Automatic annotation (TrEMBL):
Residues 2-118 form the Response regulatory domain. Residues 150-215 form the HTH luxR-type domain. SMART domains: HTH_LUXR (SM00421), REC (SM00448). Keywords: DNA-binding, Phosphoprotein, Transcription, Transcription regulation. The keyword RNA-binding does not apply. The modification 4-aspartylphosphate is found at D53. SUPFAM superfamilies: CheY-like (SSF52172). This is Response regulator. It comes from Laceyella putida. Gene3D superfamilies: 3.40.50.2300. InterPro entries: CheY-like_superfamily (IPR011006), NreC/VraR/RcsB-like_REC (IPR058245), Sig_transdc_resp-reg_receiver (IPR001789), Tscrpt_reg_LuxR_C (IPR000792), WalR-like (IPR039420). The keyword Metal-binding does not apply.
Length: 217
């Protein structure tokens, strides 16, 4: 099996290459630090399977997956990321990815997952599947947010960041936000850091106050 590894962190790329090359039926044929290089290597190396990171410079994993599946639909793509967020699963699967795994997976389980996808199966871990089902159920029960689109885009905030910001304003802690929005606590922390940066504030109280003063919430 010819495998392409795509990740913007060199340590992860090299470590995965060493571990997976030890498998008797797997040959790592290329390493890419962003989606653009991944597409180029797919053209030249024609891998059977691509392990694709999501957040990368130049071209992210979702866009790279889309281009790869458009040009070479026979190449199978597994999204490999640290972000345990449902929307990434939906985005990746909707454009043709065959699997989704978290980087915390054991190397032997990763190799087994690659083999399953290579054989034509779709791979979604049980914990991710539960989150996906929960999100679908939540969406079916909860009306869409009433925040006008023009307000969501103030300060460059994404809709998800506005949701996290509303939770901050409601006084929720990171764990409570994670449970409410079906995110990992690490992802919540990333969103909060991004919110602070975009609003040019340094704590929750100032973030919530500024958002309310400027009409974001």
């Amino acid at each position: 099996m010819r495998l392409l590894l795509v990740d913007d962190q060199e340590l992860i790329r090299e470590s995965l290459s060493i571990v997976l090359n030890m498998e008797p039926d797997i040959e790592v044929v290329g390493l890419a630090e962003n989606g653009e290089i991944a597409v180029e290597l797919c053209a030249s190396e024609q891998p059977d399977v691509v392990l694709m990171d999501i957040h990368m410079p130049v071209m992210n994993g979702v866009e790279a997956t889309k281009r790869i599946k458009q040009q070479w639909p026979h190449i199978r793509v597994i999204i490999l990321t640290t972000f345990q967020e449902v929307q990434y699963v939906v985005d990746a699967l909707s454009i043709g990815a065959e699997g989704y795994l978290l980087k915390a997976i054991h190397p032997k389980d990763l190799a087994a997952g690659i083999r399953l996808v290579w054989k034509g199966e779709t791979l979604i871990p049980q914990d991710i599947a539960k989150l996906l089902v929960s999100q679908i159920n939540m969406n079916s029960l909860t009306p869409e947010t009433n925040i006008p689109k023009k307000e969501r885009t103030k300060f460059g905030l994404t809709e998800r960041e506005v949701e996290v910001l509303q939770c901050l304003a409601d006084g929720l802690h990171n764990k409570e936000i994670a449970e409410k929005l079906f995110l990992s606590e690490g992802t919540v922390k990333n969103y909060i850091s991004s919110i602070y940066s975009k609003l040019d504030v340094h704590d929750r109280l100032k973030a919530a106050k500024k958002a309310q003063e400027k009409g974001v919430l």
